[in-house]
Specification:
globular, 5 helices, single chain, mainly alpha, about 100 residues
Length: about 100
Amino acid sequence: MLDASKILAGARSTVNFDPADLVRELAAYGETDASDRLMHLDQQAIAAIGVLASRHYSAPDSPILDKAICLGIVEFLEERARPLKRKRRLYPKSRATGEA
């Protein structure tokens, strides 16, 4: 993981988010390891991810906000920026109750 205090020290802008809201999005982008680890991070780490997400969101290719936050999470956890495993989200299909 990156050092949250170093990221926060150079912050110009940030994105605020609720980690619980991003678990499903990370899984949909194929980042299951990151989705498992996200809920165990402290508030300083979440704030640092918000700074990284802001940088991704203001990049020339300007991804949607959820994707920018997912990119920030992966970058924070893996200590380097990289594309997400999936370009598009793929949500698991829910099974209706009572089906055989």
